[in-house]
Amino acid sequence: MSLLAEISGSIGSIGYGLAAIGPGIGIGIIFGQGVQAIARQPEAYGIIRQNMLLGFALAEALALIGFVVPFVYGT
Amino acid sequence: MAFSVLASGGPNCKIFSGCGFPAPGAEIFQFDAILSFSIGGLTFNVSKVTFLLLLAVVVIIGFFGYAFRKPKLVPRGAQNVGELGYLFIRDGIVKETIGKGGEKFVPFLFSFFFLVWILNFWGIVPGAQLPVTSIFAIPVTFAIIVYVTWVPLGIYKQGFVGFFKNIMFPPGVPKGMYILLTPIELISNFLVRPFTHAVRLFANMFAGHLLLATFSIAAFYLLTFSVIGIIGSAASFTLAVMLTAFEAFIQALQAYIFTLLAAVYIGSALHAEH
């Protein structure tokens, strides 16, 4: 099989870019819906904010793993 | 720290001088031992990291010891601040996530919140400028402490079979789904949970510190008598200052999230989902 394309240089940064797509969408949804929920029900601000941050932390972990892995496994 | 990074490029490493940008890497998180001693064959190395870790413990014990040395019914001064911190953990985190039976865990989570926060906070203190939690061993230790707290607690409270049954077979799901759901729940609760718990804190601090270092070095690297140099250097410096403020926010947020997740895990061990 012949080589069609090759990437050289910092592949880890490309990996991070790919890893940031999903969490980016996720965090956008979380905060968008969170703000909407606060606007609809301002008195539930405390509970909404807490769950919003919890969801944010869970989604963000994926992007952060993508950020750290090139440092750990990079050559 | 910043000096050692600049030293890798050299103090004369500037733009247009044929010197590439000395981008900081993982090596800025490695420190030599300041002093080392051995007790009974074990060698202990004290580096900047260990020193800041111990200093954080001293600061926390010192502050809260001072704040609650003579507790009064009507709090004043430092006691006010201390009680505010306590109420934040008790009402803001424990009551909303653990609920009933959570009072016992307030001291545990309280210590964790302030320790993690101070350790993160060293990242923007001039002179220290190292978030201690960006050394992976430290968040891993914290996550292990939380893990060995909530797993035995769950087994103790719900019984060995009940605890694993509640986690592996969440109720209200069609029977066939368990083939798919049980392995996922098992892996995500017992393997991924402690891992992400540690990595989240570590990676945030690691990334933040690297970002600050990058822009600080860029401000120095671009500082030459040229249009690009002055504009670039000023922009980098401004960004570094703004990112410092942003980091201060992220540090508190990550300490909060770490504590919040610890509380959620303990809550899941105390009360089964149903």
List the helices and strands and how they pair.
The complex is a heterodimer of chains A (75) and B (274).
Chain A lengths: L10 H30 L4 H29 L2
Helix pairs in contact in A: 1-2
Chain B lengths: L1 H8 L25 E5 L2 E5 L1 H20 L10 H20 L8 H16 L15 H22 L1 H9 L9 H45 L4 H44 L4
Antiparallel strand pairs in B: 1-2
Can you describe this structure?
The complex is a heterodimer of chains A (75) and B (274). With 75 residues, chain A is mainly alpha-helical. Chain A has two helices and no strands. In chain A, helix 1 (11-40) packs antiparallel against helix 2 (45-73). Chain A is elongated. In chain A, 13% of the residues are buried. By secondary structure, chain B is mainly alpha-helical. Chain B has one domain (2-270). Chain B has eight helices and two strands; from the N terminus they run H-E-E-H-H-H-H-H-H-H. A two-stranded antiparallel ribbon of chain B has the order 1-2. Chain A binds chain B through residues 46-47, 50, 53-54, 57-58, 60-61, 64-65, 67-68, 71, and chain B through 25-26, 92, 96-97, 196, 199-200, 202-204, 206-207, 253, 256-257, 260-261, 264.
As a percent range, the share of helical residues of chain B equals: 55-70%
Average pLDDT metric of chain A: 87
Structural class of the secondary elements of chain A? mainly alpha
Helix content of chain A: over 70%
**What general outline of chain B do the C-alpha atoms trace?**
globular
Taking pLDDT < 50 over at least 5 consecutive residues as the criterion, the unreliable ranges of chain A are: none
Number of helices of chain A: 2
The tally of structural domains of chain B comes to 1
Beta strands of chain A, count:
0
> What composes the largest sheet of chain B?
2 strands, antiparallel
Strand content of chain A: under 5%
Characterize the main sheet of chain A.
none
Order of secondary-structure elements of chain B: HEEHHHHHHH
Number of contiguous helices of chain B: 8
